[in-house]
Amino acid sequence: MATSDIQVAEHALQHHFADMEQQQETSTFGMWMFLVTEIMFFGGLFCAYLVYRASYYQAFVEGSQKMNIWLGATNTAVLICSSLSMALGVRAAQMGKPKLMAVLLLITIVLGCGFLGIKAVEYHEHWVNHEFPGPNFHFETGDPAHPATDPVHTEIYFSLYWAMTGLHALHMVIGVGLVTWIIIAGLGGAYSRAYFTPVENVGLYWHFVDLVWIYLFPLLYLISKKHGG
Amino acid sequence: MATAVQTVERENYLNSDYGIKSWLLTTDHKRIALLYLVSITAMFWIGGFFAMLIRLELLTPAGDLVSSDTYNKLFTMHGIIMVFFFLIPSVPATLGNFLIPLMVGAKDLAFPRVNLLSWYIYMVGAITALTAMVMGGVDTGWTFYTPFSTTYSNTHVMGAAIGIFITGFSSILTGLNFIVTIHRMRAPGMTWRRLPLFCWANYAAALIMVLGTPVVAITLLLVALERAFNIGIFNPQLGGDPLLFQHLFWFYSHPAVYIMILPGMGVINEIVTCFSRKRVFGYEFVALASIAIAVLGFLVWAHHMFVAGISVYAALVFSLLSYLVAIPSAVKVFNWTATLYKGSIRYETPMLYAFGFIGLFTVGGLTGVFLASLGVDVHVHDTYFVVAHFHYVMVGGMVMAYMAGLHFWWPKITGRMYPEAWAKLSALLVFVGFNTTFLPLFIVGYMGLPRRYHAYPPEFQVLNVLSTAGASILAVGYVLPMIYFLWSLRYGEPAPPNPWNAVGLEWMTPSPPPTHNFDETPIVTWEAYDYEHQPQEEVTVGH
Amino acid sequence: MWKNLPLFPERASALAWQVDGLYFLLLGVSAFFTLLIFALILVFALKYRRSVHPHAVQIEGSLPLELAWTLIPLGICMIFFAWGSLIYFQEARPPKGAMEVYVVGKQWMWKFEHETGQREINQLHVPIGRDVRLVMSSQDVIHDFFVPAFRVKADVLPGRFTELWFRPTKTGTYHLFCSQYCGTDHSRMIGQVIVMEPVAFQAWLSAEGATGTLPENGQQLFQQLGCATCHRFDTQGRGPNLTGVFGKAVLLDDGRTVVADENYVRESILNPGAKIVSGFKPIMPSFQGQVSEESLMALVAYIKSLAQPQPNEPGGNHAPAPEKSNVQ
Known about the structure:
Shape of chain C: elongated
Radius of gyration of chain C: 27 Å
Order of helices and strands of chain C: HHEEEEEEEEEEHHHEEHH
Order of helices and strands of chain B: HHHHHHHHHHHHHHH
CATH class of chain B: Mainly Alpha
Largest sheet of chain B: none
Mean pLDDT of chain C: 87
CATH topology of the largest domain in chain C: Immunoglobulin-like
Strand order of the largest sheet of chain C: 3-2-1-5-8
CATH superfamily of chain B: Cytochrome c oxidase-like, subunit I domain
Structural class of chain C: alpha+beta
CATH topology of chain B: Cytochrome C Oxidase, Chain A
Radius of gyration of chain B: 23 Å
Strand content of chain B: under 5%
Largest interface: B-C, 94 and 88 residues
Oligomer: heterotrimer
CATH class of the largest domain in chain C: Mainly Beta
Helix content of chain C: 25-40%
Mean pLDDT of chain B: 92
CATH architecture of chain B: Up-down Bundle
Low-confidence stretches of chain B: 1-6, 538-543
Distance between the termini of chain C: 46 Å
Largest sheet of chain C: 5 strands, mixed
Shape of chain B: globular
CATH architecture of the largest domain in chain C: Sandwich
Number of domains of chain C: 3
Low-confidence stretches of chain C: 311-328
Number of helices of chain B: 15
Strand content of chain C: 15-25%
Helix content of chain B: 55-70%
Number of domains of chain B: 1
């Protein structure tokens, strides 16, 4: 077992690194840097969200009340579970158990696809209800006692909703692809106790995407249950 | 042929493999640097062509050479191409790509395949933007101010925005690669304090690329989405805030100025030390100044918005911070000048460019202080004063540094010497032409001519004619190197490993370097710029 | 020769001298440092050239020098900062009692409306020696109102008011430029500011004539749009009584206090839900898309006039008429 570990490791060592340790540290460091750029990427949208939420609070409340909180909460739970199975999968890879890893990552994929499926149901509902920004956008200010909110401002809420969750969903799709790649490579014997950096890095990515949702859910779904203020 | 030239050329990164495929699929940082060099040179000429048309149009007060729509497209495309497709990748993606692994004693960048990917992304972005231009162009100005860009412009804003969005990722990947390489790939003994200042400067620029570029990417994506779906993020008629766009845009695009200038400053460190044969004056201060610029650069964006309707107190804070960011640049200029003191100075072409850089960057930097000053900025904002200022920094500074670096490392990159006399002539032409072009524009600006004017009142004509005359000298100054560099590829004298007798790991390997850079991993035991222990050259080379 | 090749802009406002003063100081200091650097480079390059100085003397650096050239420029910069900010503060604070002109920028023209109702396009007549405050907004994209001779400039934004003021000190005709790029004919969105002697200005005003002053027009709109049904001039209205509101602090529903300035009035018309006055319900519909920029300005001028002391007018539903004395 030990010799084959080292063989796998040597095979994985790229020509420009001195040793496996350097290679491992380098890729992990690179992954963290990448996540920093991702934070800035989402950061621009969060910034826009905060500005408009402050300006059009009522409209944002009305928009958020169109969200299906139960589907959103289920999705949050699904993602947290997927992060757990991801973490366990990385641990299995570290211990040199590729089959266990594959099973755990498969669970992650199933949960990830589940998330996307539920999200698709939500998207469909919004689409049918004309809650998609653009020429077909239509929004009845829900409470006749509050005509003060302008549908145009709710449209901004929905623009940000679609942009933020859409970008997040895109990251999920990419994540599912990456995990699939790890499973195939892992079953092919690419990883061992001595070399599992890609598994770890994809794990980091998955947790990051999960974390973004942990922020999106309360910001978009749970602004306020009350009508008016 | 005075020096010993091997009759049988040894294997290097250029002759190790031939054919298109060996270039398009290469993961060698040196080859990728050359791919970038070719691409950004092409972009430079396209952008330069637009600039020439702009200057020709401005010969006369009436808008008579091109229509106003065409003129608007010309300056927009000049800006987009020069900023996003030439200046930002110029030194990092070519010289940085080529030199950083050599300077830190590594075989390659940390992620060679990511490096190649970044070039492909750059090309996809560039082709997208160029397609938008060929299909009819964009007329929003390179700044894409909303709501003009989102609602009112009838041109190909979408294509240009998406092109820049895509290219942003190439910049992010390059920056990421540099940071990781400098952190993790240094040769034994190459401590942070022994790192060439070129690496420090690129490191600082890379921080900005990684932290800033995603923000402008998402901002331009929002502009594209707003155009596509008529959503109202930046459109006041739909409740949006046009100033939010400016905040997000300048949050990146101001630091982006430092992406452009910092690597240029890095080049100057290498050249000034080499041709005065001295350790740089105040190494730590120059290194820290780079980082200080990168950090402070993120805190000054709203100085582009002093007249845009931000609050008085916000303007005060941003004015103060803008002064602070000027200080590290001043520190650098003083340190370079002090490095010359009691040196042993040679006037090779790279050094002439470096002198030009220090002088012109000083002018560019000091006029930046005018703009940081609130009372004066209100008057000169959006006039030709600003145009002159940033061309002094970008062209007088950055392009000068790029040319300096290209001459300095040309022998290393190609293994050939360039013709020194022609090179000196072109350096002179660039300096004279540049000042004739842009010095009059400071006056035009203070007199109040707004930028981006297709036609202008007749009293501004004389200075504009002078500027156009200067531009034609400048153009000759840029065409010459293009010719003699190409000429030298075939007819230039073969370059020895260290034609300038410089220190630095990149000079300790043959010219051009072998595919893996070093025959064996170097072990560094000396300080940076250790010219004290470098033997004085006996033979001068090449000329 | 200098007539065809002016190298310096005319100075025609009270502020111009201050801006130029700081500019000359900046110019002097910059010239000093630029020449210093150029001279040092030249002297070092000649004195220590390889042929006369073949062996460099290694110098590590010097902390006192580094501190000197960090702190001295910093000190100088702080002077610039302080002076520049003082000027900016004056620019940002229009003096009380300034004559007001309403400005609408649109692709590609400037529209002016004096308080007394006179309208102009691409030309603005103002009297010498009087403070003039411009209340500006744009109908489409961002424009920028720039008069080089006055050294003032401000962006003109869609969706909000911005302001700018100057006090002309020299009669004459001066360039007015749009200095924020605004599309095809950006370079033709230019005009003139004509500074006249007060008498000539009064003559111009009467010759120009106007169909009602701006507040009068605003009052008409106030009736037409039905504002008056809720905003009554007693305490019985469903909306706040607007008499005397302008320029005062207003207590909001959520406990905040805001000053009722032009932008507040504008927001209250277009996005009434944003700030609800304490004690009232958020029932006002939005007038977004129903009132033009000019109408908005007339309404603002009217509400402003309601806050001016009107000794002769009785209270009640009949709104006080604005001062007309200026015209005659």
